[in-house]
């Protein structure tokens, strides 16, 4: 959906298109509301805080809606520490963890082995390292990882070497930009249109979410309630 259509639809949801009330709503305010709406909508879907209580990949619809945000990051360099290796600082567009896949080896065997990596809680670290069924094991091809300090820590218990891997994560939804509107991030005027990565049916929901945000800002509570109901009833 092109950005001019998004602007018109937001104005229509606010019931201001024909009356031309609130013409002082700036273009950048609509862009900011839409970009904020993308984030709040995505967080609800990933966490399951929506009407159907469906989180990340809990239904075909959630898989289909969110797959556009999944991204692979090949990793060939790891920082080796005692008992673990770490993937250095997460990428700037990182939004939410999905999985890590690695290949590992030991001195006795030069062949690299695919390892299953489970995401674990940092608070249970010492328990996991001592648990015979959960601690890192090259023969079983299993280990675990934790998230700390904006890094992914993959535990080896000093038993094997991690050679390469892939970090799969949800990236931040791309912010839209409208030509001639202020870009709040850069403080400059946008010279090109940047459209949303989502398909049109999701953009419609995000438009309702953006209208709800603006309606709250201008204390138009009827439009806020109507837009909020539309977002969740169609999720």
Please explain how this structure is put together:
Helix content is 32%, strand content 27%. It is an alpha+beta fold and 235 residues long. The strands form two sheets. Strands 1-8-4-5-6-7-3-2 form an eight-stranded mixed β-sheet, with no helix packed on it. The longest helix is centred in the first third of the chain and has 21 residues, at 27-47.
Number of helices: 6
Q: Whole-Å distance between the termini? A: 18 Å
Order of helices and strands: HHHEEEEEHEEEEEHH
Unreliable residue runs: none
The assigned structural class equals alpha+beta
**Record field, number of beta strands:** 10
Name the overall outline: elongated
User: Can you list the strand order of the major beta sheet?
Assistant: 1-8-4-5-6-7-3-2
* Percentage of β-strand residues: 25-35%
Mean pLDDT across all amino acids: 87
Helices and strands, with pairings:
Blueprint: H1 3-13, H2 27-47, H3 60-66, E1 70-75, E2 79-81, E3 84-87, E4 94-106, E5 109-119, H4 125-130, E6 142-148, E7 151-155, E8 161-171, E9 182-183, E10 188-189, H5 200-217, H6 221-233
Parallel strand pairs: 5-6
Antiparallel strand pairs: 1-8, 2-3, 3-7, 4-5, 4-8, 6-7, 9-10
